[in-house]
Design brief:
The complex is a heterodimer of chains A (350) and B (276). With 350 residues, chain A is of the alpha/beta class. Chain A folds into two domains: 235 residues, Rossmann fold (3-Layer(aba) Sandwich), CATH 3.40.50.300; 70 residues, 2-Layer Sandwich (Alpha-Beta Plaits), CATH 3.30.70.100. In chain A, a hairpin with a 5-residue loop joins strand 12 and strand 13. In chain B, helix 3 runs parallel beside helix 6. The radius of gyration of chain B is 20 Å and the shape is elongated. Chain B is 74% helix and 0% strand. Chain B has one domain. Classes of the chains: A alpha/beta (350), B mainly alpha (276). The interface between A and B is large, with 46 and 35 residues. Chain B: Its main location: membrane. Chain B: Belongs to the ABC-2 integral membrane protein family.
């Protein structure tokens, strides 16, 4: 543990500081660089999202910061404590909720939380009191005394999240908190997380969904191939890729109409229009979606160009990647990473 | 949110270790209580084995100086504790698969608590099996022909062996990819190990290669030790090798070696595992 004085000095502003983290896994097809020199800095009291596709290394970062795996090289400090040198001290101040609900199926919701309290050394009566409090807070009162086995996916996630909050952690880690949840449970969980954030808890979350990062985080870090490729507020990131994507499909796919439509889209959009992935339409990034849609439709109407379909949608992770890297997020390479498994559960939302 | 301070009570390391181990033990015991299949494994299977062997083979197998039921019981005890310990392995593998290990590892608990809890609760399970087998044995005519102290020493030796062997299996459980691997592997390895021994038939009835294997088999020493301590030996000559002539010492050495080697290995392994 070097630099004790320095870290103590800087920790008023930054609670997580990671520099040059690397991790290489061996696999049958050769070494896989899960992390290739990742730097990360999270200000105290802020919410930061790591955004990236499967296999980008997001889970590896979280596992390192929560002391579950050791970096091959690099250094990470949480609240001034080095995660490799003193993992137990780190564990005393963090809460973790992973990609797969880490709860005991055979215990009831209450028993799960009570056990976690005992293992944080809260003492017997305090553990029980806190477990009950969290059951109530997470609206699990009706299910709290049934084994988790019978819980729905959303309820499991809530118990898991409650487990991360048995102490009021200084830093809360949420690894893909809503992967695999239906849209309703996702929004319910978002609301729970937003309430926590309002209390000033520092949160580091990972997600594959731009919308989730946008909803929850102050700052977004885009991760690809174990590196940070972009970083900034969600507004800045959106300004870079556009707030919405505007899509039109033409009746007459001939070159004339197509060129005219392209010109109109370019006039109202940000940047160059592109052919949509199905090859039958055109799309362009726009800042103010509804307004741009009205203008584009009016201009296309004036030009006498007929449409099959028109609409706007929120940018997806693919759009972010296409803009930032020139390739799509779900690329073929680098697939043998730590979070390949979650592709089975991934639910695409728009 | 309520105001819980993050400064936690600072107990001394020993009471923390004890409390963490007990918390995990309790969790495992609740699990056993709520999974009927595990109780079937622990309760019905031993009863069935005692009844099958004593009633089906009992008439056909001759043992010098005693009857088959007396001879059999120590063998069945040994087999049951050996198989019972494999549960530690599959349970560790299952915990790893289900992700609860990541929860445990992210908590400031003692680094050995999960393993202590695992092996403790399996000791409880094995003790329950033993009691039920003994009751069944007594019902079909098994009798202890030794002093109460020797009897207790025999029970203690069997349970200690099962406890030490649990650590071996726990390490395996943390090293495999799925709980099924442990179940299959233990079937392939432990069936020959328990059957090619003196547990169910006197080893001198076996063909030479198997007889030599059976005589050196550590399970045979365990069975021999239990037979001696329960006074169920009969008059057949004991093979003239040190491990069979001194079975109690052999088993104690085996237990010590397993604990000394595998407890540290398990704790080290646990510090680096993470579910995927």
């Amino acid at each position: 543990m070097y630099n004790v004085h320095n870290t103590a000095g800087m920790n008023t502003m930054t609670i997580i500081e990671a520099t040059g983290l690397t991790k290489t896994y061996r696999s049958k097809s050769g070494p896989v660089h899960a992390l290739a020199g990742l730097d990360l800095s999270v200000p105290r009291g802020s919410v930061k999202a790591l955004l990236g596709p499967n296999g980008a290394g997001k889970t590896t970062v979280v596992k390192m910061l929560t002391t579950l795996i050791r970096p091959d090289s690099g250094r990470a400090v949480v609240d001034g404590i080095d995660v490799v040198a003193d993992p137990k001290a780190v564990r005393r101040i963090i809460g973790v909720s992973g990609q797969y609900a880490a709860v005991d199926e055979n215990l009831t919701g209450f028993e799960n939380l009570e056990m976690v309290g005992r293992l944080y050394h809260l003492g017997a009566s305090e553990s029980r009191r806190r477990a009950q409090e969290l059951i109530d807070l997470f609206e699990l009162t009706a299910a709290g005394n049934r084994p988790v086995k019978g819980f729905s996916g959303g309820m499991r996630r809530r118990i898991d999240l409650a487990g991360a909050l048995v102490i009021n952690p200084k830093v809360l880690f949420l690894d893909e908190p809503t992967t695999g949840l239906d849209p309703r449970s996702r929004i319910a969980l978002w609301n729970v997380i937003k309430r926590l954030v309002a209390d000033g808890t520092t949160v580091l979350l990972t997600t594959q969904y731009l919308e989730e990062a946008d909803q929850l985080a102050d700052d977004i870090v885009v991760v690809d191939d174990g590196r940070v490729i972009a970083e900034g507020t969600s507004d800045r990131l959106k300004a870079q890729i556009g707030g919405h994507r505007l899509e039109v499909a033409l009746v007459d796919a001939g070159a004339g109409a197509s060129e005219a439509a392209r010109g109109i889209l370019a006039r109202f959009g940000d940047g160059e229009p592109t052919v949509t992935s199905d090859g039958r339409g055109l799309e362009v990034a726009v800042t103010d979606g509804p307004r741009a849609l009205q203008l584009v439709l009016a201009a296309l109407g004036d030009a006498g160009i007929e449409l099959h379909d028109a609409g706007m949608r929120r940018p997806t992770l693919d759009d972010v990647f296409l803009t930032l890297t020139g390739h799509k997020a779900d690329k073929a390479h680098g697939a043998a990473d730590d979070d390949t498994l979650d592709s089975k559960e991934a639910v695409k939302t728009r | 949110m309520s105001a819980i301070s993050t400064t936690l009570p600072s107990w001394n390391p020993f009471s923390r270790w004890y409390s963490d181990g007990w918390t995990v033990t309790k969790r495992n015991l609740i699990k056993i209580k709520r999974s009927p299949d595990m109780l079937v494994f622990a309760v019905i299977q031993p009863v069935m084995f005692v009844l099958l062997f004593s009633q089906v083979y009992g008439g056909a197998i001759q043992v010098q100086g005693t009857d088959y039921t007396q001879f059999l019981m120590a063998g069945i005890f040994a087999q049951t504790v050996v198989f019972g310990s494999t549960f530690s392995g599959s349970a560790m593998a299952l915990d790893l698969k289900e992700g609860i290990i990541d929860r445990f590892r992210s908590l400031p608990m003692s680094s050995s608590a999960v393993l202590i809890g695992r092996t403790n609760s399996d000791l409880v399970l094995n003790t329950i099996s033993m009691v039920i087998m003994m009751a069944t044995g007594l019902a079909v005519g098994w009798r202890v022909h030794s002093s109460p102290a020797e009897f207790l020493a025999g029970v203690g030796l069997l349970l200690l062996f099962s406890y030490a062997f649990s650590w071996v299996m726990a390490l395996l459980g943390m090293s495999v990819k799925s709980p099924e691997v442990i179940n299959n592997a233990s079937f392939l390895i432990l069936f020959p190990l328990t059957f090619v021994s003196n547990a169910f038939v006197p080893s001198d009835t076996l063909p030479t290669p198997l007889r030599i294997f059976a005589e050196w088999n550590p399970v045979s020493s365990l069975v021999q030790a239990a037979r001696q301590l329960f006074g169920n030996e009969g008059t057949a000559p004991v093979p003239d090798i040190w491990t069979m002539q001194h079975p109690i010492q052999t088993v104690l050495i085996g237990i010590t070696v397993m604990l000394v080697v595998f407890v540290p290995l398990c704790i080290r392994k646990f510090a680096s595992i993470s579910s995927r």
